[in-house]
Amino acid sequence: MNMAPDGQPEPAKDTAPAIEFKAVLVVDDDRQLASALQWILADENYFVDIAYDGEDALSKIKDNDYDVVVCDVMMPKLRGDELFIKARDLRPQLADRFIFITGYAAGTEINLFLSKTGAKYLIKPFPMQKLIDCVRQLLG
């Protein structure tokens, strides 16, 4: 046991490396899918927060720093494309940290938005490993 100069035992030093968790916000009005994505990403050692609509997500983005946002395109209250624009204005570093998930990628308006932003996107249903790979790429 090591002793401090005052004769008291020195506290044990933590020699384990600090684990840095990256924060991911999952935004989807499909609660079952959002919950599944939360568990899958948490299993990959990400801290995962959930929002069930765009307005709730925007509020969370105002209050928290996220490293990645996984976002459905078609949602009530505030669509994913609208959320992206507002989030980018609030936190410019998120501009290249969105991954969109959609069942509507064939729609002209959505395709135009996705190509303009250059954002990553996955078409539902997608393999979970593909989402994990996209998150890892963004966090590079």
Cα radius of gyration in angstroms: 19 Å
Largest sheet: 5 strands, parallel
Estimate the mean pLDDT confidence: 89
Give the uncertain stretches in residue-range form.
none
* Name of the CATH homologous superfamily of the domain at 30-126: Response regulator
Instruction: Tell me the β content.
Output: 15-25%
Series of H and E elements: EHEHEHEHEH
Shape: elongated
Count the E strands: 5
CATH C-level name of the domain at 30-126:
Alpha Beta
Q: Based on helices, strands and strand pairing, what is the structural class?
A: alpha/beta
Known CATH architecture of the domain at 30-126: 3-Layer(aba) Sandwich
Helix content: 40-55%
Number of helical segments with 4 or more residues: 5
Strand arrangement in the largest pleated sheet:
2-1-3-4-5
What is the first-to-last residue Cα distance? 42 Å
CATH topology of the domain at 30-126: Rossmann fold
Short structural description:
The protein has 140 residues and is α/β, with parallel strands linked by helices.
Draw up the topology in text.
Layout: E1 22-27, H1 31-43, E2 46-51, H2 54-63, E3 68-72, H3 80-90, E4 98-102, H4 108-117, E5 120-123, H5 128-139
Parallel strand pairs: 1-2, 1-3, 3-4, 4-5
